[in-house]
Fold this protein.
Amino acid sequence: MGKIRVVVAKLGLDGHDRGARVISRFLRDAGMEVIYTGIRQSPEDVCRVALHEDADLIGVSILSGAHNALVPRLIAELERSALDIPVVVGGIVPDDDIDFLRSKGVRAVFTPGTPVEEIVKTVNAIVEEKRAG
Amino acid sequence: MSREKADNLQKAKEKWRAGVLEPFLKKTGERKQRFYTTGGAPVDTCYFPGDEQDYSACLGFPGAYPFTRGVYPNMYRGRLWTMRQYAGFGDAEQSNKWFHYLLAQGQTGLSIAFDLCTQIGYDSDHEMSAGEVGRVGVAIDSLRDMELLFEGIPLDEVSTSMTINATAAVLLAMVMAVAEKQRVPWEKLRGTVQNDILKEYIARGTYIYPPAPSLRLVTDLITFCSRNLPEWNTISISGYHIREAGSTASQEVGFTIADGIAYVQAALDAGNDVDLLARRLSFFFAAHNDLFEEVAKYRAARRLWAKTMRNRFGVTHPESMMLRFHTQTAGCALSAQQPENNIVRVTVQALAATAGGTQSLHTNSYDEALALPSQQAATIALRTQQILAHESGIANTVDPFGGSYYVEALTDRIEKQAEQYVDKIDKLGGVLMAIERGYIQREIQEASYEYQASIERGERLIVGVNAFCGAQSVKPRLLKVDETVEQRQIERTRAVRAERNQAEAEGSLERLEHAARSDGNLMLPILDAVRAYCTIGEISDVLRKVFGEYRDRRI
Amino acid sequence: MRSLKKKERDKLIGDFRSGSVAALARLLSLCESESRSRRDLMSSIYPVENQPFVLGITGPAGAGKSSLINRLLFVFRKRFERIAVLAFDPTSKLTGGAFLGDRVRMAEHIKDEGVYIRSMADQGRAGGVGAGIHDTIGLLSAFGFEMVIVETVGTGQSESDVRLIADLVLVVLTPGFGDEIQAMKAGILELGDLFAVNKADQPDAERTETEIKASLALGRSQTAEAPPVFATVATQGRGVVELAGCLLEKYQELGREGVIDARRSKRVEAHVEEMLKEHCAMLVASEIKAFRTKRAKAAGRINPYRLAGALISKIFKAENNAKKD
């Protein structure tokens, strides 16, 4: 059983990486291997990182409100690269947008204040489900 | 206090501790084993008069060194703080309408938020701008947008604060160009540019160039304004974003003052007069939930800055030692769960800021953990300030918490810790070195991790988040940014490029490049490019070519 | 992860052979894991004809290894079509997790199709690189990379494994690491074919350079040439072109002298040795476990020599039987 490998990505121009960094550390504490991309990544960049790193899951952090434009682009890029990697999103995302993102294939959305425990549990469940095929 | 009195007090305290407190604690216990401030300082059961504090040296009088109690002698009895709500979204036309609304509601100054493309020097049609145009603030590509933004707003009648850093010189040049068109002389322009690039590397991430040329742009702007825009605040040294990135209150003060030292030094090296310079500096802090710690923080910051200016830079004029500051309530303290609770949080935070003697204040809207503020939520936020100002009594006297044993103890503690951070940064060779080595970023990361861990462990309760989660809350009506803005903005910018005098535009960019390669002041060459309707992306690209781009290498 | 069925294995190897980066990435994960199917899977990629230039880069954490690689890549890409970087970070002993952030410093290369960057955890192994490193390099070689850069964990402890897997080792140090150099000297100074004093814009840089040169000269005979020492500032790119040039020269020089070939033979030797040890360790562990569950006799009645002898013959019998099957 290999370790769960998660790519934590800052998509777009937003430079606030407190959330991404804190979550990365908690995922590491939960026994995962976390690959952090740094800020200002385009959807195409993130897709390539996930490809190189054989990621089990991509966690996108985005606070600028550009999620509706950028996250579907990431998912389309993953599809184009024939990569079946689940995507979860953390950030300031209104309810309507959560529905929209889920309809585009995002597996889970975490808004500010979500307990880390819940995020870890969700990530574990999604990856286990995928690995079980 | 006399020696004898102090001894008596000490004895009485011991007696109370042994005879009253401890038996009581044995019987009843306490809610927690230890109590801490939000910033992690241990808190005692009760505070008592200190036996060492010298009133004149430590506190002094309002409006006088060391300014612990406030920068003006009568504070809000003369003039209330400026209620300055940060606003801006969509394109310039939409934001202009919003500004007119805010001014009509009794707001007394404008505070402009720009979208990330504008902040990072990308035009709206740049590939990295996709999805970001008009999101977290207004999109400004060229002078054309700035003209629309200030349509019907005479620049000599409002003060304008702009949250802009890496591209501050360009945006200020645009304001100057609009002033020319409105026939308002530059000397009458009042306002602020944030222009604090150091904290971008530390905490906020909207940098463009490496630190050295960025500092040159900062000082070019400061130098230019000291000669041409005497009423303009040329930098707002920001602890806010450091706090939002997860620092403690002491770190917020320490790192911000260290940044301030670097700017003063850079401006002095560029030949500025220290007194002229010091008077145009302002600061920007957060207001978090811990009322007493926050009040203490502002007091400690004022005292430490006054000492720094006097002892390190040898200024003699008291006005040059004053730390004037803007405050914004803490965005990171807002919860997406039960968002109405945020109204109460913001009230407490705003109380801290005003009790702490802020010069201006932005109160967050309760829906900001969910989206950009809606009009209803933004109005409540402004009303919160108005209630504090006119109904709470907070504005009736200076430094109302002064003399609280607890607040004085916290003030001393924060000042001391902040001073230790400044010393440590000095030892590392200054702020630039400390940033380069990742020291400051690491300290903040540790603090933010520890903060979150204490929530996860259940030691820190956040109502509606990890405690009292029961009630379903009403879903607020959220502001939606018009999805057509991006396309409209792109079309406008392309039209500007097509309609302008191309030779003039190109010539101005060439002159800018030439100036950037020499060591002359860049403000006028930038202004020329702005007047020729060059875009922010074009201007920034010229500087990228000369200065290179910064990359964050910290892990 | 389920163990792979034969069909999936064949598809994966097929995709890998036809140049799929996804298949490469998957296989690299698999050769880190302990699964039994790993051996068969990896066995199918050998022998590998392509022998890339394997450059090991080691040095204490914070020395700027990743930033230096970032700059070196720009120079090396002019020479090599395809380069792979393996960046190792430590696995947390407490949680088993790892934070892998080295690629942040190499983000400039993300759009370059000729650069493959892989973040790896060391799985708690001492030595500076992770388990399965031989197969990892085997896979990258078979995939056709012309150069493989291995960045070690940088714990400051002995990272001698890098010597074993690399054709050439660059040691990166910084000014102000004086005391640590003293502590590490025995190990790290013997490790390097080349040395870089990075962050050379910081105070004390020249002194560090002199100290290193002196230490390197110390243990050598008059005729033997001491390894070169370069001053670099990775964040600004200073000294990087010179360093890269010297690395390539040294690689060619050692190639001509037959040293590279000798090192590669040693690498295969170490790989085989590791497999043997691993296999034996597994057998031993299972016998010990069996012995423990029986626990038939009291300690005072056991002759450990006779018991070990009996178990060894049992192991070999079992092995021979398994082969006949």
